[in-house]
Design a protein that fits this description.
By secondary structure, this protein is α/β, with parallel strands linked by helices. The chain is 40% helix and 20% strand. It has helices spanning 4-10, 38-57, 60-76, 78-89, 98-114, 149-162, 176-186, 202-210, 223-233, 258-270, 290-302, 322-338, 370-373, 389-396, 412-419, 454-460, and strands at residues 18-22, 29-34, 120-124, 129-136, 139-143, 166-170, 195-197, 216-220, 239-243, 248-252, 280-286, 341-344, 360-363, 380-386, 401-402, 404-408, 426-429, 444-445, 448-449, 462-468. The strands form five sheets. The chain has a seven-stranded mixed β-sheet with strand order 12-13-14-11-10-16-17, sandwiched between helices. It has a six-stranded mixed β-sheet with strand order 7-6-5-8-9-19, sandwiched between helices. A three-stranded antiparallel β-sheet has the order 3-4-20. Helix 10 (258-270) crosses helix 11 (290-302).
């Protein structure tokens, strides 16, 4: 374990161009990130190619042991990683935020290491014998986002390494330090050259996605960028796992208890200050309990403290960057102008430093309003009144995205019946966004394709091979 200052110094370049990274809560400088070049990327890919065969030859047991040691390394540096993450991304240390995210990195490393994946006997009838094996892809390109930079990068790295691949990581330009620090810590327990992070602009991501030596790309981010990666992967027929935009819907049935579900609704929507792909972003409530749900949710939301992430009392932080702040502010203002009712928030303080947008609840809003139809990715939740459950389902399914969704009810069987009619990769009952390393996760429609987590996640980082005979 090393101190925060030592960890930051270890990833600070001593030469070459750099980018100054600022704290979104204060505007203060967090550190300097390297601006790697295409030459640096080529070297990283070359090193990965050279290291990968020996890593694959170790077998599952040895690779899993190394991942378990890497998880231990993350835990040894957990507080330093969490502090850096809080300063760079903005999320508070406490609540389901920075410390939670670093803990999830260790948990996902251990899950990837300990999930069994044995060859499958397909046919054994006395005449034909066929087995299905899973071989490494080779070099995996991992392109991550700025909202959960450490955790989502681990989601990409852990199964890729477990399956015998080498990995080249390209973090978001907004949060490179967190990922560089994570990779530095992981490399304390991994062979040199097996895992490398390259920090820089979009041209690095584009080259990584199209590089002929990269056999698989994992990407979490916008649908627009995902479509560009699909196009760039075509010439080399790369394997892809894409987790794209969500705009998740939640449906509250008329038998739900508004007070009992209010806190769950809040965290489903406002975890990481709403900056989560699988967060609850539009809430459909049956008219019989609409007013009560609005009232109880407002009470919970008003009590949640927002501020600098290093303050142990806060559980909500700023938006990570100015561009995202502007998106949220524009959508809320357009909703106000359309006649929607602002129950809470919607009034940012122009004199407050940082990109803080207050927790905002918007009622009596039309389903076609941009705040509903577009993914706001911030602390603003539209609440739509529905006369029937069928109407709620129809509106929930109306968009071309379907990452996650949720149904809230006192009757689990009734909730399951509604869940089965929703077009989304995951539908939660009486919770939202609760991912689990044992349970596959992926999107429907334009929210992407491919599965992460569990056995299916391991399989997606491999090339299936049938041995027949």
């Amino acid at each position: 374990m090393e101190t925060y200052d030592a960890l930051l110094a270890s990833i600070t370049p001593t030469s070459g161009p750099t980018k100054t990274i600022q704290d979104p809560a204060t505007g203060e400088t967090v550190g300097e990130a390297p601006i790697h070049t295409l030459v640096d990327l080529e070297q990283a890919i070359s090193d990965a190619q050279a290291t990968q065969p020996a890593w694959a030859a170790l077998g599952h047991a040895a690779r899993s042991a190394a991942l378990l040691k890497a998880a231990d390394a993350v835990e040894r540096s957990a507080e330093e990683l969490a502090r850096l993450l809080s300063r760079e991304q903005g999320k508070p240390l406490n609540g389901p935020n920075a410390r939670f995210e670093v803990g999830a990195c260790a948990a996902w490393l251990r899950a990837a290491a300990t999930t069994p994946l044995e060859p499958e006997t397909l046919v054994d009838d006395g005449e034909t014998y066929a087995e299905l094996h899973y071989k490494p892809v080779g070099v995996v390109g991992a392109i991550g986002p700025w909202n959960w930079p450490m955790m989502i990068t681990t989601w990409q790295i852990a199964p890729a390494l477990r399956m015998g691949n080498a990995v080249v990581v390209k973090p978001s330009e907004y949060t490179p330090l967190s990922v560089l620090a994570l990779v530095k810590v992981l490399n304390e327990e991994l062979p040199e050259g097996l895992l490398t992070a390259v920090s820089g602009g979009r041209e690095l991501g584009a080259r990584l996605a199209g590089h002929p030596a990269v056999g698989k790309v994992m990407f979490t981010g916008s649908t627009a960028t995902g479509k560009a990666i699909i196009k760039s992967s075509a010439d080399t027929v790369k394997r892809l796992t894409l987790e794209l935009g969500g705009n998740d819907a939640g449906i509250v049935l008329p038998d739900a208890d508004p007070q009992a579900i209010a806190e769950g609704l809040f965290w489903g929507a406002f975890i990481n200050t709403g900056q989560t792909c699988a967060a609850l972003k539009r809430l459909y409530v049956h008219t019989d309990i609409y007013d009560a749900v609005c009232e109880e949710l407002t009470k919970v939301a008003a009590a949640m403290p927002m501020g600098n992430g290093l303050d142990e009392n806060n559980v909500l932080g700023p938006l990570q960057n100015k561009a995202q702040y502007d998106v949220v502010a524009h959508l809320v203002e357009a909703a106000r102008e359309s006649g929607a009712q602002i129950l809470l928030g919607g009034n940012p303080d122009p004199n407050q430093p940082g990109y803080f947008y207050p927790t905002t609840l918007v009622a009596d809003i039309d389903n076609n309003n941009p705040l509903v139809a577009e993914e706001q990715f911030g602390p603003a939740l539209p609440i739509i009144r529905c006369a029937t459950v069928d109407e709620a389902i129809e509106k929930a399914n109306a968009l071309d995205v379907g990452l996650g969704a949720s149904v809230w009810s006192a009757n689990r069987e009734a909730a399951r019946e509604v869940a089965a009619r929703i077009e989304a990769g995951t539908v939660w009952i009486n919770k939202h966004g609760a991912v689990d390393p044992r349970v596959p996760f992926g999107g429907a429609k334009q929210s992407g394709y491919g599965l992460e987590f569990g056995v299916e996640g391991l399989k997606s980082l491999s090339v299936p091979q049938v041995i027949n005979g």
